[in-house]
Design brief:
Blueprint (H helix, E strand, L loop, with lengths): L17 H4 L2 E8 L1 H26 L12 H32 L7 E6 L4 E6 L5 H26 L2 H13 L1 H8 L9 E4 L4 E8 L3
Antiparallel strand pairs: 1-5, 2-3, 4-5
Amino acid sequence: MSKTFPHKIEMNGEDTDPLIQQGYVKKDFSYSPGIAYVYIILLLIPTAALLLYIYSLRFSGTTITVSLSELSQLLLLALFGLGFLLLSAVHELLHALAAIIFGKAKRKDIRFGIIWKALTPYTHCTLPMTPAQYRAVLFLPNIILGVLPYILSLVIGSTLMYWYASLMLLGGLGDLFIFFHTIRLPADALIKDHPHKIGFVAYLKESK
């Protein structure tokens, strides 16, 4: 769910924030896109290497290569790219489905968009969620489109499925980056996506 959200959440008007009025303390866990992508790239390199190592180990060091010497292979690459774009859209739809299932959101609470500067699609639910709900929304698309197909690619030895699954997992590293910031939050915290940055704002109950 890595994205920016210009919808419905006013982060500056703390005096009128209903959660602040209910006694919550707000803590910011957000980054500018530039800073966030630096961290995501640092995650990407070892993750890509690990995925390739596991696949090669499973199939006795099989080398995966792509040759662009023939037109048919270029067309195949184009279809591969189109498939990746379609799966990226499905990824965002699964975020929305998870928000409806786990976050009890309605369709009117879901927003879709694209960060054009980074060519990154996003899904945003305007309702606050508990950390457990938020994590489910983060991970459902990555499990369905990444983890399960990757495991299946190891079982059946499908290189094409390996590439798709790996790209889906690498594309979901923004979700993993955000997840790391939820680990230490108490179970009764509430989370809202930040309206202008990548990440979220957590609302914590004040200690008595």
